Amino acid sequence: MLVRKLLLVPLVVIIAWMIVAFFVVRNAHVVHKVDELTLGSIGEPDDLNPIISQTTAASEVAQFLFNGLLKYDQDFNVVGDLAEDYRITQTSTAFFNSDADAAAALDKLNAAKDRWAAMKLLAVKQDASRLLLQFGSATDRVTAGTSYEDDLFKIVDRKALRPVTVLTLEFDKDRKLPGGATADTENVKKLIAAVAGQTRAASLHEMIAVGESLLSVSVAGDTKAFAETLTRSFVMPLAQAAATQGAASLTADKPAETEEPAISIMESLDEALLNEPVFTFKLRKGVRWHDNQEVTAHDAAFTYYSIIDPKYRSPRASDYWTIKSVATPDDYTFVVTYRVPYTDCTSSWMMGLIPRHILEGKSGNWWADHFNSTPIGTGPYKNVEWVHNEYLKMQANEDYFEGPPNLKSFAYRILPDEFVNQVAFEARGFDVDGVRPDQVAEYKHNPRFRTFSRPADAYDYIGWNLKKPLFQDKRVRAALAYAVNVDNIIKYIYRGQARASNGPFPYHEWYGSPNLPTIPYDPEKAKALLAEAGWKDRDSDGYLVKDGKRFEFNLITNNGNALRLAIQVLVQSDLKKIGIKVNTSTYEWAAFIKNYINTQTFDACVLGWSLGKSVDQFQLWHSSMIKPPGLNFCSYNNKEVDALLSEIRTTFDRQKLTSLCQRMQKIVYDDQPFLFLSTPIPTTAIWKDQYVVRRPDGKGGWIVGPIENTPAGVTYYMQWWAPRSIAPNLKP
Amino acid sequence: MVGAAIDRAEPEALTPMWTFIIRRLLISIPLLIGITIISFLIINLAPGGQVALPGMEMNPGLNPKVREMIAKQFHFDRSLPVQYVLMMKDMVTGDLTSFKDQRSAIGKVLERLPATLALSVMAFLISTGGSLPLGIYASRHKGRWRDKVISVASFAMLSLPSFWVAYMLVLLIVRVLHIPALGLSTFGVDFQNGFREAVDVSWHVFMPAVVLALGGIAGESRYMRASMVEAMNEDYIRTARAKGLSESAVAYKHALRNSLRPIVTFVGYLLPAFLGGAVIIEQIFGYPGMGRLMYQALLERDMPVLMVELTIGSALLLVGNMIADVLYAVVDPRVRPN
Question: Tell me, what's the ipTM?
Fold first, then answer.
């Protein structure tokens, strides 16, 4: 029967075709590719424009396409990248009560000229009742912060000075000021000038607009009186302001207590001198963009202006809010003046520069269509070909300023999930892979791979909501820490690939406290501490009771993170042993943040912080950051820590920073606002026989060697990986 | 059909079939609008609300003004009904952009459409090509061991979760056989000629298509078998046998034609089933189709892309249903509109 045979035709054709395809694909599949570096990732970059992108995947790709002015070397020292050299000096202003006082101080300083070098003072100039002091040193790159003041005040009497306050005011453009004017920058400035006119004891020095809704105001003299007048006159709720002006009818139809002030003081920094660090970059000459235009200081300035322009929606804008002005005295010099010392300012210049000649005057949408996915950068690879959800591919930039890369192309594969990711890596689908904790042992013993481990700048924690009476007693929090067996969490959840965390700063960093001991597992001590705090098992039902209330709370986390779910369960069982009832629940991330974290209605949460290399943890711990979107949602409030946080972010000296951070670490760890769990130690695997490193030695030559772990990780020199064939005798 | 038109002596008038198709299309429009409204509401019911742009949560660095600007661009400051209308307007004009990368949402979905259609067509060919012979074969050996083996196998195929089958297939092909199967083409290989490249792509379409088609093969072959068995019991079969026709002529000429009718409707519903299944299967195979885009849009809460996906997906579903209805009318004169 013909029909009978025809019925089988489609099936036969499909099967035959697939057998052919099977062999074609198998024969074409190159197992040993040599001239392409391939990375695999589960996440896809959101955007390749370094000032806009937010994902880890995007920054992994961007390092091959862009260069910043500065970069970290393999030991995390700051070194120049597009900038050949950099220098931070400082202009400080000292305010005196009168011209005569200023002149007297100048005389004293001039008389002690032999001590200038020690405190790195270069020059002093008098301007009426002020002295302008130039700090800097020919031998030090960084001469900023407040570390010179002690020496200075040995010569000049501190009491002769008028103290300075730098206030950061936030205002809302959509609201009205007490007088009825719109709260825009101009009107706010006028009002503040009026306040200054009323306060005799203080004098307004300078007002600098920061972005569209911030104003930085520096005041000398009786700054307390100034701030008080300011608060009384303008920074009070609108309704009250209207009432004091006899215009109560204005707000009659609105409930007064819900009205937020149009202006509020966001931050206030009290200093002896007004310190303005000046960052000077000398750019390398002859570095070219991928389209052959030369990179100049104007590109750096353009990058800065683009970041602070809300039109381009850069999520990094706040990193640059402490900048007062930027200047380009010539094509290769870029000068940035800061309003206040900010220790993290170096890392903000590690962000990739974007080309002015292409992007200037274009809209954000034009950027999205013409640049953000096919960017022109300065990096070792160029010409991005992006097949969404599959891969990004780019070609070597033979004109790269440090020398041509060793591998002809770079590819970034996007893989669907962890399982497929691992399968693809083992089939040599890509070259470097992060190993899951439960597989580290297997990979370590596999002769085909080399593995490298380094602690991450991150930790997981249980945050106690300090607004809840349950967690307000420090002894209770300490007891909770004694009661949870962190070693078990590390052993069973992290499979040993983590270390107990001893506070907010990672123990392995230069600013960490490696010798601060962690709280051991000691349920008996926990019980004793709880009993001391009044928690006892009064009704013998196994649970602790105080004032008729059982010790019971909800421990929440976000779903989608298996480690956190497992931590929840272990903590629940550990605490049950000492008579605390823990209820657990998980929520979808957005709901978790919106309904529990931002509203601060949770009891306790399992979360983690990924910190980066910053010593500035102001956002996480300062009491002013309790209100969202500040990140101190556990409401930690310690005046000493507040002061330390402010000092840390204005100090540059690494030694001093270390001691400040260690002091803060000790205080926070003693307070136990979090139950600090552990710092993960991630492992990276590479193919043993694939690549070696051939990198420039900075003097025109090359260093060839095996791939090694560095403090910055095994992938630090990834852009210089080279085929093994260039050094056949090198042992892996 | 042509004869019917002439009989009515109205040459310009549309044939009844065309009227039927056009009427179906017109009915589809309010249906599609209804589907978009429901989709919109469901997306908005998701916990946490809509203002969950990537990086907006837990990012104090984001200027509040920027936050507001983004909310304004996506009309989050308006009431839900207004939001819906504005979103549909943006969708039609093409102004609707993805939260994630600001690219046009329609463009993002349409560039994925060919891959998903190719996958669906391939899955359709495999499931139909496989199930018809299988179902007929089983019915021809009704009650005997071959039928039973096929039955057991079909039920096994129906009950295996397709995501598990997909993972096992990936393991087998990539890890055991060392052959690439992820994505739409072999990564990092220059095939040098167009034919080989096409073969390579077809291989990559084939793998997920097999997984998608498995359920189809099982279901469709059971359906085919039942339909065939039923037809073999009809009076006209007895007549045919009485005429002295050979058994295979009876089965393939008389019974097969009549048993195909219910199969046609089944085929019409396969397309939406493939589109739904593709969300998970494409994700596992890293196949760059609409399903994978949808899965990621879900995770990223990329509402504009989700809306476009759901709209285009339901439009495809309506088209599939319409094709099924039309085909049904084609194979069965009794249901032809007139």
Answer: 0.77
